[in-house]
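Sequence in, structure out.
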Amino acid sequence: MDTDALDRPNPLDRLIAERACERLIVEFVRRLDLGEPADVAELFTPDGVWEWAEGGRRIEGRDALRAYFAGRPADRLSRRLCTNILVTLTSAATATASTYFTTFRVDGHTGGMLPPRLPVQVGRYEDTFLKVDGRWLLAARELFLDFGGPTERLGPADARREA
C-alpha cells in the first residue's frame, strides 16, 4: 500500500484547500484596508507569526498580532493589491503560498478621494498555512520588500483638496 497516498488529497479536496488559502490571503488585506485591522489576528493560528525579512521585526501569537494591527493610525488610508497568488498544498492540512503585493498608503486622511500616489511598498508575502479544526489559518507570514518608502502624512492643505 502507498502510505503517501493517505496524506495526499484528491484533486477536488486540493482545489478546495487552495481556494480557501487564496481567500485567506485576500481577506487579510481586506480587513487591513476596509475592516477592523485588529481582526487580522483572527486569521492566524494562536501561535501565528508575522515577520519581515529585513529589520528583524517578528510578532508572535494572536494577542501580540492583535495589539500590533490595532496600533495602526486611525487616519490611515491604505489599499493593497495582491497578484500572482500561488498556493502549494504540502499535505492535507498544510500549505504554502507566495503572493506579490503593492501597497498604496497615506496617513492624515479625513475623507474623500485623493490625487494618485505612487505605491509605498512592492514586495511579496511568503505564507505557511495550517488547517485547524476544519479551518485554514495563517501559521506564518514573512514579508519581503523589493521597493519601500515612508508613508506620506497629509497636511491641512491636502485635507482641503480631498473634498
